Amino acid sequence: MRRFDVLQEQGDTFLYIGPSQSISQSFTPHKNNLSSIRFSVFNHKLGGAGQYELRVLDESLQEVRKEIITESNLGWAQTFRYDFSPLPDSLGKLYTFEISYLGKNQEAEIYLSQINKDMLGMKVLFTSSDKAETYRNDFMKISYAKEDEYPNGNAFINGESVPGDLKFQTYYSTSPQGFLIDSLTDFSKRVTFDKPFVLTFIFLLSTLTFILFMRLFLKRYSSRS
Amino acid sequence: MVMIFERLRHDTINIFLLGIILRLVIIPFTFNWDLSANTKVASSFSFSSIREFYREPLAAYPPLMYTLLKSFLTFSSPLLNQYFNSWMHMGDISGSASPYIYRILSVVKLPYIILELLSAFIFSKFFTGQKARDALLLWMVNPIMLFLVAGWTNVDVIPLFALLLFLLFKMRGKDYLSSFCLGLSVSLKLFPVFLLPFLFITINSWKKRILAALFILLPVITTHLPILTTPQYFSHAITGGYSRKIMFSLIPIGDNRSLLPFALGYFLLFLYFLNQKKISHSLMAYSFTALIPLFAFSSFNLQWFLWILPFIFYYQLTLPQLRTPFKFLYLSFTSLVLLSQMSLNFGMLSPIEPTLLTYDWPLKEFIGNDNLFLMMNILHTLLTSSLLWIGYGVLKSMEKEKTNAQI
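Predict the joint structure of the above. Result:
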C-alpha cells in the first residue's frame, strides 16, 4: 500500500516541457520505500504520440528509476501518478525527479524557454506570437509555484536552479499493518497538536454525554417534555 | 435497554443531546472538498466586486447563499486561529494533514449544524405529541442525514431550512409568510422552484395569488439585483452543468424532438393535483412527489438527496405500510454512495488519514468500469422504483383519506 509522504500542493503558474527542456525538483523523503511521485499535468495533445521521460535521481544525480510515457498516457488537468518499485533506504536522502521531452526542435526550444521564463516572471525577449501559441499547445505543461513553498528541495530548469517549486506529492510503500500503524501514529500526533481545541472539544463532548447519561440512566434526572 | 430507549424517545432534550453528540463526533473528522471550495469561494465574496466574483467557475450559487456563507465565516472567525488563512490556501491533502484541521472543521461546520438542528426542530413541528418527538429522533439519528450535513457539509441545508419554514407556515394557513420563505429558499438555490405551482393552485383568488407572487419575488429580486446583468452568474448557477443534468434523460419522439421524462412526470403530477379538491390538505404529498421525477430520472448529485430526505422521514412516520420500499430506497442510496468515487465515502475520513483522499475509484480497478457502472445503474433503477412506489403509495393514501372524509 502507498501512503503520502512529501506534499507540495501549491501551484500558481505552469511550466512547459518541450524539446531540450527538462524540469526537475529535488526533495527529501521522510520515510523509506519511496515508491510514487505525483504531479499536475495539462496535456493538450490527448492521445498524442510525443514521448516524455521521467527519471528519479539519487544524491549523486545517478539515475535510480526511469520511465518513458507518451502523450496518450496523459490527461488534461490530471494528477499524473508515477509509481515505481520502492527505494528501500530513501529516508532523509535528497532525491530529484526530472521530466524531460524526448525529441528535438530547435525553434520550439527557443520559444518554450522564453515562455517558461515569462511564466516565472523573469525578463524575456518575446512571448506572444502565433508560433509561441502553437508551441504552447504542442507540449505538456505542469503546475508550479513561483514562491519557494517547499523548503527541503529546489526546482531546476535544464539543471539550473530556479525560484519556486513544482506542485508534487511523494508516496512510500508499506504493508497494510505498516499503513495502519503509520496512519494511527500520525493521526494521534496531529489530533493532540492543537491542545486548547482538544481540551475544549473533549470537555464539551464528555459534559454532553454525561448529561445524557444521567438523564437516561438515573430516573430522577429524566423528565418528559 | 427498552426502558432507556423509551426515556430517549419521550424526551425532546434527550433527543437533541444525542443528536448534538453524534454531530460533534462526526464534524472534526470528516472533510469533503465541497467545504473547502465553498469556503474559499465565499471568503472572496463581496458585493462591490460581484461581477468579478462570478467569473470564478466555482461560484455557482446565488449571491444570498454567498452572503450567508461569508457571514458564517465572520461568525466563526473568533474561534479560528491565524492558521485558517494558510489552511484555505493549502491543497486538499495538505489541508487534511494539517494539525489544525480538527478545529477548522468543527468551527466552520458549526453554523451548518445549528441550521440543521433548527430544521429538525421545524420538521418536528409538522407533527404533534409523541409523533413530533419520533420525527425529531428519526432526523437526529438518521445516518444519511448525518452523512449529508455533518459529514459532507452540504450547503443545501440552508435553502432546506427556508423550505421547511415555507411548509410549516403553509400548513398553518399563513400564505404570505410561507410565500416569502419559499422566495427566500429559491433565492438560495433553485430547486424549491418546483414547489411554486402548488402555492398558486392552493390559493383561491387572483388577488391573493398576485400578493403571494410578490412575496416570493421580493427576496428573489432583491437578492439578485446586483447580478441581473452578469451573464457568468446565469451560466454557472442557472443553466450550468448541474442544472442541465436534470434535463439529460430524453425519450426521442421524432425529428429533433424528445420528451423529458423528468418534466413529463412533473407535469402529470401537476395536472393530477390541479384536479384535486381540498388541495390544501395535500401539501406534503405534492411537495414530495414534485421532487420525485427529478431523482427518478436524472443522475442527481448525491448531496441533492438532502432535498427529499425530510419528506422521506415524513412518510416513513405516516405511512408505515411502505416500510419495504423505504428500506430499498435507503439501501440503494447507501450503495450508490459506497460505489462512488472514494472522496464521496471513505475519502471523507481524510482528516484521520489524508491518503484516503487520493484513492480515486478503487472499485474500478477490481471490477472494471463496465461492471461498476452496470451495478450503479441497477442501484439507481432500484432507487427509482422505490421512489415511484412510495410516490404511488402517497397518492393512494391521499385518495383513501379523501374517500374516508366523504363517507
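The mean pLDDT of chain A is 89.
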